[in-house]
Amino acid sequence: MEFDLIERIRGCCGSKRADVALGIGDDAAVLDVPAGRQLVACTDTLVAGVHFPEATAPGDIGWKSLAVNLSDLAAMGAEPAWALLALTLPSPDTHFVEGFAGGFAELARGHAVALVGGDTTQGPLSVTVTALGWVPTGSALTRGGAHPGDAVYVTGTLGDAAGALQLLRDRERVPQALLARLQRPRPRIAEGIALRGLASACIDVSDGLLADLRHVCATSGIAAELDSGSLPISSALAATFGAETCRELALSGGDDYELCITIPPAREAELLGAFARTRGEATRIGSIVAGSGVRVLDARGDDVTPMRAGWEHFSA
Amino acid sequence: MEFDLIERIRGCCGSKRADVALGIGDDAAVLDVPAGRQLVACTDTLVAGVHFPEATAPGDIGWKSLAVNLSDLAAMGAEPAWALLALTLPSPDTHFVEGFAGGFAELARGHAVALVGGDTTQGPLSVTVTALGWVPTGSALTRGGAHPGDAVYVTGTLGDAAGALQLLRDRERVPQALLARLQRPRPRIAEGIALRGLASACIDVSDGLLADLRHVCATSGIAAELDSGSLPISSALAATFGAETCRELALSGGDDYELCITIPPAREAELLGAFARTRGEATRIGSIVAGSGVRVLDARGDDVTPMRAGWEHFSA
Prior knowledge:
Number of strands of chain A: 12
Radius of gyration of chain A: 20 Å
Largest interface: A-B, 74 and 73 residues
Oligomer: homodimer
Mean pLDDT of chain A: 92
Strand order of the largest sheet of chain A: 8-10-7-11-9-12
Shape of chain A: globular
CATH superfamily of the largest domain in chain A: PurM-like C-terminal domain
Structural class of chain A: alpha+beta
CATH class of the largest domain in chain A: Alpha Beta
CATH architecture of the largest domain in chain A: Alpha-Beta Complex
């Protein structure tokens, strides 16, 4: 009998949705996209030893493989609906699969995401998830709309996941608040939806604030100036590292999965009001100016931009 | 500077489509599904050394990674539209990427498929493609509609790809006609679309005819009886292997990517007419009966079902 991992995962994974006409178990899924909506689609791979330490708990891998994709949907202002899962495993390891499915399902349920298809293959451990969702037609947030004079905001706090990873690599004790940010990142779905019609540009912070904001600058054809003193640092990070390291982690550390937003100044009050309703937090960290690239300025206006921009694996 | 493989692939890959509101280059793609259509979605992974020999030409890997997914869409009667590509490579190998992209693009262009997103990561070679397409609402072909009395048909010829793989493994000369079936399978898109409203059930033959037809039997709650003498064998296969080996390859060899169809007898003339218009071929190979499982009968009515059902890696 075939060891059907996807069937096993189906048993515990994801939500049931009326818009799934045909889910797992045929050659493909058949799905109903509501009228007046555009489909939003993304795919991201996590490779063992590259995107997560080999020793990561299966449930955390499951959670994170979906989270990084939902974060991309959040950055578009999209509401997630469905996911497809391609899981490559060295062997048909039931313990791994059940742990993985548990973590995946926990996040999927929290956002009413249905697992509608997938593939399991034998090979070195890696996970590719495709997430599908939608936006009202014409309302997707993009990287391309920032203008000089816009404010730059970021949700939540920065650097926590990178701080946790650094402590893990140094074999030091990792505060739980930091570890949770690395292992169970929370995609900013509600915040992304609240930003529709408000943000002029949006991106999720996955490779590091500087690296990701540079994408916004390049696509929008503008520059950004950040105030190094305004970067949102968690109390857990500040209690663990010195101020300079916190700043570096916040600027260049990856895996934050916060949203970085630009917004016309006239809309800032609406932004803060919308976030108050979604219980989200956002901090103003700088401004959009003419030019190109991202500069970080200290309180005296001196350029303190780090040389290292972000996480430098070769992945796109 | 980041070695942006997906950007490089974008340059040569796939078609431009008016229904791609936002393609590669943002956090996710934004896509317009036409009114009156259901989205059809599938994902499949190819792992080096498992799904293709390590020495396979990059262009063939690119072609096949898309082909296996388009074949799943074909089995649903879907028209393909978009694809997302997750490519994991041991190193940023420009030669590989350009070859891969060339093969992927060649097939994508042939079916007007636009590459709308992706991810490139560093790790052991594997490729996961997600294919998206659509059917008129309510017209998807499934595995679940076969009834006793239905005829069983299969498109094209069976066993060619498995024959080529066997010769490669035995380090023997491989006739070009067989090698092409292994390296550049042609998804039966036009045939799948022609089958809408005609076939009672449909599946693509990826794991082997017996294994795949068993899925139809299990989902539909019926059995199938195949006539071993009616299996469509190509002249290239017949010229290379003995009759008994041809039969085994046709029944149990994988990677055919033909469609196996069930159809009420009253609709058979329409099927053949529709296939004549799409220049497709289909061969009647058996019948649906009450019961469960698949039996293969010879001309005397003796049961000659092979013990080995299909390709037995652990993948679903």
